[in-house]
Amino acid sequence: MSTAPADLAATRAWPFEEARKVAARVAKSGKASALFETGYGPSGLPHIGTFGEVARTTWVRRAFEMLTGRPSRLIAFSDDMDGLRKVPDNVPNKEMLARHLGRPVTAIPDPFGTHESFGHHNNARLRAFLDAFGFDYEFASSSDYYRSGRFDAALLRMAEKHEEVRGVILPTLGPDRRATYSPFLPIHPTTGVVMQVPMEEVRPAEDLLVWRDPETGERHGTRITGGHCKAQWKADWALRWYALGVDYEMSGKDLIDSVRLSSGICRVLGADPPEAFTYEHFLDEQGQKISKSKGNGLTIEEWLRYAPPESLSQFMYNQPQRAKRLYFDQIPRAVDEYLQHRARLRVAPDPAVPAWHIHGGAAPNDPEPPVSFAMLLNLASVVNADDPAILWGFLARYAPGATPATQPMLARLVEHAVHYYRDFVAPTKRFRMPSEAEREALTALMIALRDRATDLEAMPPEDRARAIQDLVYDAGRREPFLEPGKDGRMGVSRGWFNALYQVLLGQEEGPRFGGFVALYGIAGTIGLIETALARTEQPTA
């Protein structure tokens, strides 16, 4: 076994902190490799949370392999033996599905008519989803595992420990549920429904569960093995950990109690539960928990329309144990944060940089974009860019030689910027009238740009942007925009820059203004100021 380089062994990046826990567990157990797992409920379609869980687990898995030199596997486990509890809103043939409520989703016809069952359809969607992002994983079907006998030994073990397993769960239940609870859910031999009924007898030596149909009163004997029954949710999770030897699994904050109880059951069965990691859920713009049924979140399709997938990885990487708001305004920030970290990774392969984990330790080969995504969005807003070619006209002048072929990441950002502008920026643009003080400052800036235009245009883009930013500051060094800085000297307040964004660009915030002028052009910016100064009344929405 190889040893980890010193810089990796000492890094405080959270995937490595988690990987060290797995490494200690594997070393203690004497195993040659580690098994990571993520879970998926196939009664619905994969979503942005699915991406987050698999991406984060992948980063921990990669860190483990680099720390220890040991191999590992990642199982994406589909709980497709579960009974369908309700008909989803976003599927066809709802009436047909309603006739199959309670049956395992892999025993229900596919409402889309494309696969063997509803569960197979959604499993295929999950695999296509994970494959699209290039995740390295092994797909596992609960139905296949139960029916093939993979869980038989663990099921018989649970039958032997039936009362002890019940003892873990019963204190958490109300009196009525406590009286009927069993970790086993037999499949009804006639209806195929996953039954939640008390066990009259559990006979592990005979591979038998004895229970009674609550509607007909008929007594049934069901085999414990071979897919004739499945385990209740918390017992099922523990059964899986025990049977497969799972070393690591993360889950959301809402499952903290489930992790605790499943861990207790896993110990009853005779194994240590895996290392666990709890992540926080996303919030909407108002700070409310995102709910698929409410539709108050941002879908992964929406994110990928407006930004590259690497930016979504960046958003998922940051502070996973803190609740984060997930809405449209987060997208540009995540993109530019990713680009900044990507540029840092190119300079030094530091595992403390999120892009190190996103790209597996090596920076991409394509060049860094010459402008930020926020800058592209502001340019798109000003020029009303409903076509990428409009933006490329400005970019080619700002960064000679920049084309979609030479700048593939920039090309992707341009496409995203146009989508973002059309769908999100254009409907919200609101220009306002400048105040008298703002008119004076804008006039001063316009005159300074006009006087220095020839010199500025001759400068390299970065020098030009810095020089223009100095002119922007100089124009704002007047009342009411003066405020004392940390060093005691008078500086320019945020109010001046807010005025530039609101009066000239029609939005609440924007990038460093000198950089925007360098990209948009001095003549064009002078035209924006002239238009603003010529307004005699507040523009209508």
Write a structural description.
This protein is an alpha/beta fold. It folds into three domains: 6-282, HUPs (Rossmann fold, 3-Layer(aba) Sandwich), CATH 3.40.50.620; 300-424, no CATH class; 430-534, Arc Repressor Mutant, subunit A. The chain is built from 23 helices and 14 strands. The strands form five sheets. A five-stranded parallel beta sheet has the order 3-2-1-9-10. α19 (436-457) runs antiparallel to α23.
Please name the CATH topology of the largest domain: Rossmann fold
What's the overall average pLDDT, rounded? 92
Largest sheet: 5 strands, parallel
* Termini Cα gap: 66 Å
Percent of sequence in beta strands: 5-15%
Major sheet: order of its strands? 3-2-1-9-10
Number of domains: 3
Shape: elongated
Helical/strand content category: alpha/beta
CATH class of the largest domain: Alpha Beta
Strands, count: 14
- Annotated CATH homologous superfamily of the largest domain: HUPs
**Helical segment tally?**
23
Any low-confidence stretches, pLDDT <50, length ≥5? none
Cα Rg: 30 Å
Helix content estimate: 40-55%
CATH architecture assignment of the largest domain: 3-Layer(aba) Sandwich
Strands, helices and their partners?
Elements lengths: L5 H5 L3 H16 L4 E7 L7 H21 L3 E7 L15 H5 L19 H15 L5 E4 H7 L3 H9 L1 H8 L5 H6 L3 E3 L12 E5 L4 E5 L6 E5 L5 E3 L1 H12 L3 E5 L3 H14 L5 E5 L2 E2 L16 H7 L2 H9 L6 E2 L4 H18 L6 H5 L14 H11 L4 H11 L9 H18 L10 H22 L3 H16 L5 E3 L5 E3 L1 H12 L7 H8 L1 H13 L7
